[in-house]
Amino acid sequence: MSGPLTQPSSTLSDAEYLRLSGSVLACIEATADRWLQDDVIDIDAHRTGGLLELRFPNGTQLIVNLQPPLHELWLAAKAGGFHYRHVQGRWVDTRDGSEFFEALSKHASVQGGKPLRFEPAAPPG
């Protein structure tokens, strides 16, 4: 398939977007903190508002940035930049439809030099 995927624009309200995207950042932070505490990897997570930086021992970074006007999550990795939109309960790449946490895990594993897996937080209830 060539060109961007045709996806509907966000149907989220601004409040829903902020709640869902904020929970993604909190989940990533909690995972990185757990890995550091459990001596899985010496990863440094630093959050400033809607920007979360993950620094790996080799000096590379992953950056997850909220884009409220577009209702998107942006991921900057050594391999490039990726944009994700919330569609049917999942954050999906606006170009290829891949899932955010799968991509984040893949890029973190490459940059961290070992298998690392991020998982979305379980829905409440």
Would you give an account of this structure?
- It is a single chain.
- The protein is α+β, with helices and mostly antiparallel strands and 125 residues long.
- The chain is built from two helices and six strands; from the N terminus they run αββββββα.
- The chain has helices at 14-37, 100-112; strands at residues 44-48, 51-55, 61-67, 72-77, 80-87, 90-93.
- The radius of gyration is 14 Å and the shape is globular.
Radius of gyration: 14 Å
CATH homology superfamily: Frataxin/CyaY
H and E string: HEEEEEEH
Helical/strand content category: alpha+beta
End-to-end separation in angstroms reads 38 Å
- Count the helices. How many? 2
Give the overall average pLDDT.
Answer: 91
Low-confidence stretches: 1-7
Largest sheet: 6 strands, antiparallel
- CATH architecture identity: 2-Layer Sandwich
Question: How is this fold's topology laid out?
Answer:
Elements: H1 14-37, E1 44-48, E2 51-55, E3 61-67, E4 72-77, E5 80-87, E6 90-93, H2 100-112
Antiparallel strand pairs: 1-2, 2-3, 3-4, 4-5, 5-6
Brief synopsis:
The chain is of the alpha+beta class and 125 residues long.
List the keywords.
Metal Transport, Frataxin, Chain A, 2 helices, 125 residues, alpha+beta, single chain
